[in-house]
Amino acid sequence: MSRTNNSSSTNDLVSLDRMAPALAAALGDDRWLGVGAQLISGGKSNLTFILACDAGELVLRRPPTGDLLPSAHDMAREARVQRALSGSGVPVAEVVLSDDGALLGVPCYVMRKVTGHVVRSTLPPGYANSASAREAMAWAFVDTLVAIHSVDAVMVGLGDFGRAEGFMERQVRRWGAQWESSRTEEVAEMTELGRRLAARVPAPQPGAVVHGDYRIDNVIFDAQDVGRVRAVLDWELSTLGDPLADLGMLMLFWREAGEPPIELIPGVTHLSGFPSRAGVVERYAAASDLDLSALRFYEAFAHYKFAVIAQGVAARSRTGAMAGQSFGDLDGQVRQLAASGLTRI
């Protein structure tokens, strides 16, 4: 059954008068001429829509409205990496259409909808309701990250997808510059954290494909098999670089029992039955053979990077660029993230 548009504002963001014939042509199916669109809530950076008609459902990704940070919201990059990883052993959604701006006025892409569970702040009823099932979920999630880092970038056509040499130095500079572009006040903790990171970059790991935002709500779990990841989502920050940058982010996202929640980071790993951070690191280390002795640096960097992301979301939300979504007190969250990062370096 077709799903109708949410509102005229949704139609403005999706431009169905141009998107519908483009989909019909790309898929060879005129039923897509009757497509409708609905915003999926929960997106913090780019906007995600379900496109539906009698032929089925697809997913559209596009940048938010308003001014965009340099190098952020790169839809062409997302589409390219998903196409390259198709068949690699890393589960990704099939991209059916990508556009450089002719359809919506901004770059966008459309992928097939992958069925399964996106787990945010709660588990679906009856899903992974035992300790063994939750452990299976966790190990599937960690093993998928190892699979990403094990991809031969040259073999899949991503040899020029980034420059692994000097990756962490550039990352510290990049996110520092984006902080300066989006901050609304001086935050002493962010200044000090940025200074320490720049001064203490460790020796690099062998270069790999990195996701850039690998967390539990950026994968789709199989609805019947808790130990299977069906697709990895949200590749906008992917590149070639230091794989421990992903593991450091995962440590930030992997909340344990009794820890305070962080705005913008939903999760269930604090629930009974999920492994600890130490268990996750042990699983990753056993499969990857990387030197994890400097992991605390990467954890500190993760706090810094996510604080900048939170500041950017706060700025866009204030200007109405997030399609009316609200995300709470992100300014306070920025300071909390920076302070926590300082304890790790």
Automatic annotation (TrEMBL):
Keyword Signal: no
Naturally occurring in which organism (per UniProt): Nocardioides pocheonensis
Presence of the UniProt keyword Nuclease in the record: no
Any GO MF annotation of the entry: transferase activity
Aminoglycoside phosphotransferase domain boundaries: 38-260
Gene3D superfamilies linked: 3.90.1200.10, Phosphorylase Kinase, domain 1
Database matches in InterPro entries: ACAD10-like, ACAD10_11_N, Aminoglycoside_PTrfase, Kinase-like_dom_sf
Annotated protein name in UniProt: Phosphotransferase family protein
Alphabetically ordered keywords of this record: Transferase
Origin superkingdom: Bacteria
Pfam families associated with the record: APH
